[in-house]
């Protein structure tokens, strides 16, 4: 159980909590799930009244369309939170899927203790709610950036818009992106082969240099 307490402590939502408080007040209400690769932990239209803290593994947040096409919205890793946006909505109904892209271990915690007085010391509870608001706000800004990327009609324009945003965010023309090639194609809503071909052309033309998920903007 100590491993799970440490995982909660490393999550940005709960950093303010002492380990003793996590072990006494938070862990008893949590349950652990081992989730195999390709398994969905949240489905479209699911009612979600708990959030998950990733202990290990990786989770894809997806839209899946009626024709079977998928669009990658986000990739979450260890100590990040699944479903924090859903628990704050009126209906708690999910508009997306959450899928384990590799074998993952997730701690699920009922959300009601965050919104009910008396479950934690009030100063701790208010600090967690403040962090929750900030994290959701940051996620909303990321969605605005993605809308700006997808508004670009050409493949090269989408690539350059995304890479430029990442470079601006990091203050460097050399960047490491959080996506594999398949993930990047899904995030940009483009064909994987077309993406690889365009990246090769851009490298040949001296626009970018890349190796796997490390990129350098040359222009």
Descriptive notes:
A hairpin with a 5-residue loop joins strand 4 (59-64) and strand 5. Helix 4 runs antiparallel to helix 5. By secondary structure, the protein is an alpha+beta fold. Strands 1-8-3-6 form a 4-stranded antiparallel beta sheet, covered by helices on one side. The longest helix has 29 residues, at 122-150. It has helices at residues 2-10, 19-26, 112-115, 122-150, 155-170, 181-188, 192-204; strands spanning 31-35, 40-42, 50-56, 59-64, 70-76, 81-82, 97-100, 104-110, 174-176, 208-211, 214-217. The mean pLDDT is 95. 40% of the residues lie in helices and 24% in strands. The protein contains 7 helices and 11 strands.
Characteristics:
single chain, 219 residues, alpha+beta, four-stranded antiparallel sheet, elongated
Give the SSE layout.
Elements: H1 2-10, H2 19-26, E1 31-35, E2 40-42, E3 50-56, E4 59-64, E5 70-76, E6 81-82, E7 97-100, E8 104-110, H3 112-115, H4 122-150, H5 155-170, E9 174-176, H6 181-188, H7 192-204, E10 208-211, E11 214-217
Antiparallel strand pairs: 1-8, 2-7, 3-6, 3-8, 4-5, 4-7, 9-11, 10-11
Helix pairs in contact: 4-5
